[in-house]
Amino acid sequence: MKKILSHAALTIAVLSAMGTVSVGAVDAETTVPEIKNAIVVVKEPAADSRSKSGWLAEQLAVTAFGDSLQYWQAASENDGVMPQDSKNNLSDIGHSYTSNNLPALGVEDDYSLALKSNEDTASIGPVYRVGDVYKPSATTKKTVKGVFTTYHEKDMDITVYTGPDKSRLEGNQLRGQGATYLFPVGTITNLHTTEKGLVTVRDIGVGSSRMEMIFSYGSPNAMWRNQSDESYIFLYEGHAENSWTEKKEFTSLVANTNNNSQSPDSIQNGKSYVAFTVKNNVIEAVDILDGQVWTRFGLPKAPMYHFHAGQLSDDDFVLRGLRLNQHFVNDADAEWRTQGMLFGATFIGYNEYGVSVDDKSLINRVLLNVYTPTRRGIAMGDTKYLLLFVYGMPTRIVESATNTGTATVYEYKNPRSSNSYLQFALDDKNQYIKSVMLSDRPVK
After folding, report:
1. What angle do CA 390, 396, 398 make, to 5 degrees?
2. In whole numbers, what is the pLDDT of the chain averaged over residues?
3. Global pTM?
4. CA nearest 90: which of 22, 31, 170, 34?
5. Signal peptide span per the entry (predicted)?
6. What is the rounded distance in angstroms from the CA atom of residue 428 to the CA atom of residue 434?
7. Distance CA 340, CA 361 (A)
8. What are phi and psi of 126, to 5 degrees?
9. Topology classification of domain 90-98+310-439
10. What is the pLDDT of residue 168?
C-alpha cells in the first residue's frame, strides 16, 4: 500500500492541451548535433501559468515525471528520505532520460485502480487490485457469466472468479486436469472503468491524455484500432510479481518477438495487462486484467512488441500496417479524401493516412494524419521531447531555412534497409510534430 500512496502523491502535468491528435497492427549516430533551444534547467512556473498550453505543459510534465522516477524508486525501497528535486532536464531527453528508465510492470500495484478523494489533493480512496479477493456488498448489482461474476460499482466494473477454488484443483491430478482457471474464489480478474477519478498507480486514468500515458508507461506492446469510432486500444504487458523470480528491467535490450498475446504462455508466465482506450488523444476507458482471462477481453490476435529507445528495428518502419516497396491495394473499407500527385508520385489520401506509389504501384511514402499514432504511440501534435523520449536521438537532424524560420526534420534510418526512413517534421518553432512520414529516401 505504501507504494501506491507514495507514487499517487505525484501529479504529472496535464498535456491534453498540447495536441488535438479494424485492427491494424541500431543505435543512433554519436555525431548527432545537440537540439537547439534546449532548456538546461526547467523551473516550475507560477500557479497562474499552469493554465497555459503546449510548451509550458511540456516543461511541467518533464519536471514532474523526473521527480516521479525518483519517488518511485524510493517508494519501492519502503524507506529512506523521499527526494524533493528532479535532476532531469529537457536536454537529457533522448540521451540519458528516455522511456528505458521507466520501471517495468510487475509489482502488484501496477494492476490496481484507486479512487482519488479530491482532484486538488493527492489523497486516495479505496484501492482495487487484480489478484485481491473482493467482497461486495449485498446490494451491489451484478452480472453472472459462467464462472465469472461482474459487480457494477458506482465508478467501475469488478469481475471476480466464482468457479472451483484453486485449492481444490492444485495437487489433485483428476480435478486439476483440464482446469481453465486457477484462482481462489472471489479473486478479482478484471477491472474496467470509463469514469474520471479512478487512476492507476502511475496516476493515469480516464481523461488523461495519450501524451501523459506515453510519458508514464512508454510505448505500448500492442495496439488496436476500432474502425467504427476510430479509437485506439494501447496495451501494456507485464508480469505478476509473485511469478517473477527476478524483476525484468527495460534498461537491457529486449528482442522483438512475434509471439501472440493470446497464446497459452499467458497463463504459464503469469502475465497481466493494462489497456487504455484512447480517442482524440484522450483516454476514455481503462482495463486491467489477469493473463489467464486475456481471451475474454475479446481483442483480435496481434503481435507483441518490446521497443527500446535508441534501438530501432524493422518493426518501427511500418505505418498503419503499410511497409515501403509493398504492393499497394486500395483500401476498399475506407473512403479516400484526396487523390493526385505528391513528390512526383501518385497519391491517395484517406481520413487517417495517405499513401504515394510509384508507376509499379509499390509504396514509396506513407503519411499519417492527426490522431493516428506510430507503433510507439507518437502522433502529429506531440512535442519533440515525447518523440525523443520513446525513440531516442534520431539518426540525423536536418535543418533548412524557410520564409518563416527554420524547418527541422528528425530522421530515423532503418538499420536493416538502405532506403527506409521514418521522418518527423517539426513546426517553425522547433517544438511540435507537424507531419509523420515513412519514406524510401532521406531528407535533402
Report:
1. 115
2. 74
3. 0.75
4. 34
5. 1-25
6. 9
7. 14
8. -60, 145
9. protein yfey like fold (2.60.460)
10. 59
